[in-house]
Design a protein that fits this description.
- This protein is mainly alpha-helical.
- The protein has one domain.
- The protein has 2 helices and no strands.
- The longest helix has 75 residues.
- The model has no long low-confidence stretch (mean pLDDT 85).
Length: 109
Amino acid sequence: MNSSVRTKNVKKKKSRLDLLRFSLNIFLVAAGMFFISALFCRSYNNSLSTKIQKTNTQITALETENDAMQVDIQTLANRDRVNTIASDAGMSTDSDSVITISAADNSGE
């Protein structure tokens, strides 16, 4: 009888050790996965930040270029400039064939 009690105690201790080892292994795997995912997320976040900075730099450059183009458009569309270039090319305006259209006031009347 003493032998069977001793066997039960050994089995209980062994099963407790197995459960403890299993729990420890699960904890270690979970902790490892946590650290790996944290490193991956940090790396991915840095990559996204770099892309955002590059995109913002491109946006700023394009806005500056658009502003410069707008100034060029306004300069090139100046009526006096167009008339000067036309007269230098030997063209002249015939006031009888010029029709001026002004924008109407569409205030609902």
